[in-house]
Amino acid sequence: MTDPIVVAEGLHKSFGDTHALRGLDLSVNRGTVCGVLGPNGAGKTTAIRIFATLSDPDAGHARVAGHDVVREADKVRARIGLAGQYAAVDEKLTGRSNLQMFGRLYHLSRVEARRRADELLERFGLTEAADRPVAGYSGGMRRRLDLITCLIQRPEVLFLDEPTTGLDPRSRGEIWDSVRELVGSGTTVLLTTQYLDEADQLANDIVVIDHGQVIATGTPDELKATIGEQLQVVLEDRTALGPAATVLNDLAGTDPTTSGDDQLSVALPGGRFKLADIVRELDRAGVNAADVRLRRPTLDEVFLRLTDQKEPVG
Amino acid sequence: MTTITSPAGRLRWTFADGLTLIGRELSRLRQEPEQIIAALLFPVIMVVLFGYVFGSAIQVPGGGDYREFLMPGLFAMVTFTSVQGVMGRMAADASLGVMDRFRSMPMARLAVPFGHTGADSVVGVPLLAAMAGTGLLVGWQPHRGLLHTVEAFLLLMLMRYALSWVGVYVGLVAKNEQMVTQLATLFLPVTMLSNAFVPTDGMPTWLRFLADWNPVSALTAASRELFGNPGMAASGHNAWPMEHPVAAVLLWSAALLVVLAPLSLRAYSRRGR
Q1: What predicted TM-score, i.e. pTM, was given to this entire model?
Q2: Contact check, Cβ <8 Å, B272/A55
Q3: What is the CATH number of domain A228-296?
Q4: β-pairing verdict for A205-210 and A188-193
Q5: Which ipTM value was assigned to this complex?
Q6: A105 to B100: CB separation less than 8 angstroms, yes or no
Q7: Residues forming a β-bridge with A161
Q8: CA-nearest residue of chain B to A56?
Q9: B12 lies in a domain?
Q10: Which of A241, A253, B19, B69 fits as disulfide partner to B231, beta carbons 3.0 to 4.6 Å?
């Protein structure tokens, strides 16, 4: 069942000679987390800025929560939240006054704004720090405050542009918990990230962008399946390197890569081989293996493979 | 959580959002009482520095006390500080991403510039009062009655409001606190290249031309005229703003507002960056 809440069709956007987006198509279903991955400069932030009405596309169109981001920008703004790469809160004010001020700007009454601020501070564990100026907050606390500022108006769609860049692992974990809680309460989240484990942890669907276009979409599992599995063999005896390489080549159809002088690895198409078969083949060739491992790729490997194909690193 | 639709609703929210943002600026000040103290000390330092250090060596044309001559210049100077204050706060909002949050919210477009300029005007009142108080202590006073005195202060406030839009526009376009800091160093030369501290009569002709057309001079001359302070007697001014300083200040204010308010709004709502 599909119920797209963010839809982009053929988005183009250039800044001078730089083509940030070249015909981006995207669709995010209601109530899901969509992770947008891509190398630096792939167009992730540009896309988010268009969805959040901060930037108009040169061509193509986008609808968010049922409204056109250009023609009905005000209606879109009343239904979204945006947390960017910087904590966009007033450093001089306390956490509580920030939330109250933004509450007023979302046109809550004074009483409602105060109540909503207290409620959010409580729910996201910032009550203790609430009355200190934000300038004294840690990076993680700032991001959390930034995130909950977006929640004041209970957005239908939340756009998170690299929400944990530059945070320590614990703060990242806290932001992840917050995002999971939001999704549990029905908010759709579109998040960009450079951390693939973040996408793996949070996203139902992943969209890989490079050079302003979508180059792959799917669930994390689907994407991993596309590049197959990685077979690693550690030899007991380095003289067996030659025969072992022949066995792996027969299985995979490509030459394995060696690392050190006793390790070999090669990519295998997903799901075709069983570990026991591989061990038997090695055995038949007289190769004594200390360790044989068939490993599913990480999303990092998928990502590198996908973005490599498009253009060589350089 | 209301979507702005009707023009009347828009106007109402522009006003409400502007007030919220004025409140924001004032709470920021409350967090930093040392800022207020520094701002209020500024007039005292200026009066001592110029009134006593420089004043000991400067002759007022047509006679009169130098500190009486000086105070309108200092009123003008403190009025012009509005530009750098607003400019800095605007650029800080833009560089910290706060501006992007405002833009992505269902708020009135006008609210942000109104908030900044409005807050600056609110802050301008105690600054002017502190300057006037210090002036009274060192022997300055208005000589032309209550009406002209009130007119003088209103004129200063009007010019301050108009100037704060210069800060809004430059801050929006610069988007960069460093650049704003560099621009702020122009403040002293610009305010000093005027009749605020010394009569322009003695300047070389080309410099005097610049000084006479400097809006700082118009504001200073207008204050001198309305307060009845010395320095106006120096005749032979042929620059129009020096002959009609009050009109010149009104024109400057109107021109700044008419040109910069729409430009600022365009810069604020310009999307696609």
Answers
A1: 0.82
A2: yes
A3: 3.30.70.120
A4: unpaired
A5: 0.84
A6: no
A7: A192
A8: B272
A9: no
A10: B69
